[in-house]
Amino acid sequence: MSMSDSTGAMLPEPPLQPDDPVHRLSGIGEKRALLLKALGIETIEDLLFHLPREYQDRSLIRQIAEAKEGEKITVAGEIVSARSLRLRGGKTTALLEIDDGTGRLKVSLFGRGFLVNSSLVKGTRCIFTGTVGEYKGLTLQNPEYEVLAEEEEGDPLNTGRIVPVYGLTAGITQRLLRRWIRTALDAIGAGTEESLPEQLRKKHALMPLADALAEVHFPGSLDGAQAARRRLVYEELLVMQCAILQRRALQEAEVQGVAHRTDGPLLQRLRAELPFTLTDGQQHAVKAIFDDMRAKRPMFRLVQGDVGCGKTLVALHALTAAVDSGVQVAFMAPTEILAEQHYATLSPRLAPLGIEAALLTASTPRAAQLRERIERGEVPVVIGTHALVQPSTRFHKLGLVIIDEQHRFGVGQRDELMRKGDCPDILHLTATPIPRTLALTLYGGMDITLIPDMPPGRLPVKTTVIPETRKEELYAYLCSQAAEGWQSYIVCPLVEESEHFASLTPLIDHYTALTEGALAEVRCAMLHGRMDPREKEEVMTAFKNREISILFSTTVIEVGVDSPAATTMVIEDAGRFGLAQLHQLRGRVGRGNKQSYCFLLGAPTTPEGRQRIKLLCETTDGFQIAEADLALRGPGDYCGARQSGLPDFRAADLLQDIQLLEEAREDAEALLKADPALNLREHAALKEKMMRHTAIFI
């Protein structure tokens, strides 16, 4: 909108800036700006950093007459035939034939038969990119495609060059995005402020930011596009690592925490009364924790260990040392079942030492009275769920916070619990192996300890797929195990039947069918998240006391239900679970010295599902599984993305950019060592970008 001065004369539009709303760009406007918001694009800078997901080399458009089976080609032609074929299940396929003057080529688009009545009608000119196959003649099956408008035949943005292909949303086309990004580059691209110090650009042979933005969108070559992306990725990772390391340095320099004693009488009694020796991994973890706790700066440590490695016992040493030091401990778990499990495990160890532990969840009776006692300092150890972070929960002197499966909590919840104490020590526990790539990203500001070993005598759980034809044999095996005093789990993906997931096994129906049929003579029970808390507690207690032989459940048992007598895990519709989740479920068995088994039912319906099942059967290595799960699902989905604190990267891909991440971390350490606050002139732009774009990491 133009503005006028005091005389009424029209003033020129102010020049565009990177942080201007995107609707200021010519051709966008308010309505299209709302559509772009779905892509995370709100400013002109956001638009420039909406990077291509791939490229099509339209400088090499092939003639159809030259097409050969097995080649990946790009062809341009007119649709001369278009029809829709209905398949079983109601889906449709678009069957096309295109002509470029040198020959004709068939095109099939599975699941998109509706397009023959909209964008891919007869007479439409299109570009198709895909691999040539053979089915009653040469065919492109499910190729990438783009409709060409008449004015685009000689358009330098869309043809005759390497063309960017972007992620889209409804109402936005590739042509529109290319035009808007070109307009933005022409308006502000050349003037984009350089944010990388010159010595780092020279060290890594990185192009200037303005050149990188122009080249990544409209490259002269694929090598140029890759070099431009590398520059943008490096900067993004450097900014993130500077933020992580700077916050950690500030914590260490400015905050004074509690210097705990780690040789007190309660701890000595605990060690004397333990009926077994800690594993080497547990001893290493306890030593690292105690070294932190003795220091005045607050501890920020993550203890990683596979299911069953004994992290809770390590935490027991930490909380006993804290009570010895006269402070309170808050132990937070993500679910009531897990909180109850920790309470049931820790209380018998603490009671002989005269240490009272209390359970505080949404279901705790007389919670108000318990909170009053906590505030007076009468309860040294409080184990609970999100109830611990509620404003009504106040501590007398909170000195240690232990958070189990911390990636299940939002960053805000963790910070809220920490603020209830005066710079308490923070100990995170996780049985979800975090791949090294993500550990550097998510927990770069924390010390990380790994417990690599298992208690002596533990045998790896054997995993196998059970076909439909052997189900009765499996149920007979469960009955024989129950007769010998061993316990089993049967896990289903749903509580009740769902019209949206008609093919999946519902827990309640499955429980009814089997307890009235093949498992009628076995003591069975059911556990799921919709049950009353008291019912859940009764079932868990009965299972732990071996009053139940087979526990039917949903993934609510993924963390938190332990029984050394549980030796068999049966997972229905296993292909529908994530790899890490399957590994967690498998970890519910094998807690004793008897050989345990995990049986997977249900044939996976996708290549990814088959790959997950294959890997689970081949290894019990949690970190190998975590790396594979990260590759299959992507970093955001693996960790719950925004909840976990994982940033929404605009350029970086943690799966392929690990080398750049490590280089960026080394450079960030050197930068902050020389200029801790990034106050030097050559670091000003980097600091400003860090302040604007980087989330705070714990």
Shape: globular
- Portion in beta strands: 15-25%
Strand order of the largest sheet: 13-14-12-15-16-11-17
* Strands, count: 23
- Assign the CATH class of the largest domain: Alpha Beta
Under CATH, the topology of the largest domain is which?
Rossmann fold
Q: Tell me what the CATH architecture of the largest domain is.
A: 3-Layer(aba) Sandwich
How would you characterize the largest beta sheet? 7 strands, parallel
CATH superfamily of the largest domain: P-loop containing nucleotide triphosphate hydrolases
Overall structural class, as computed from helix and strand content, comes to alpha/beta
Q: pLDDT under 50 segments (min length 5)?
A: 638-645
Give the helix proportion (percent range): 25-40%
Rounded to an integer, what's the Rg over CA atoms?
30 Å
Number of domains: 4
Distance between the termini: 43 Å
Summed over residues and divided by their number, the pLDDT gives a mean of 85
Throw out a few tags for this protein.
seven-stranded parallel beta sheet; alpha/beta; 698 residues; 4 domains; OB fold (Dihydrolipoamide Acetyltransferase, E2P); Rossmann fold; DNA polymerase, domain 1
Give a written overview of the molecule.
The two termini are 43 Å apart. The protein has a 7-stranded parallel sheet with strand order 13-14-12-15-16-11-17, with helices on both faces. The chain has a 6-stranded parallel sheet with strand order 18-23-22-19-21-20, sandwiched between helices. A 5-stranded mixed barrel has the order 4-5-6-8-7. The chain has 4 domains: 1-53 and 166-192, 5' to 3' exonuclease, C-terminal subdomain (DNA polymerase, domain 1), CATH 1.10.150.20; 54-165, OB fold (Dihydrolipoamide Acetyltransferase, E2P) (Beta Barrel), CATH 2.40.50.140; 265-451, P-loop containing nucleotide triphosphate hydrolases (Rossmann fold, 3-Layer(aba) Sandwich); 462-619, P-loop containing nucleotide triphosphate hydrolases (Rossmann fold). Strand 4 and strand 5 (92-99) form a beta hairpin. Helices cover 36% and strands 18% of the residues. The protein has 22 helices and 23 strands. The longest helix has 33 residues, at 222-254.
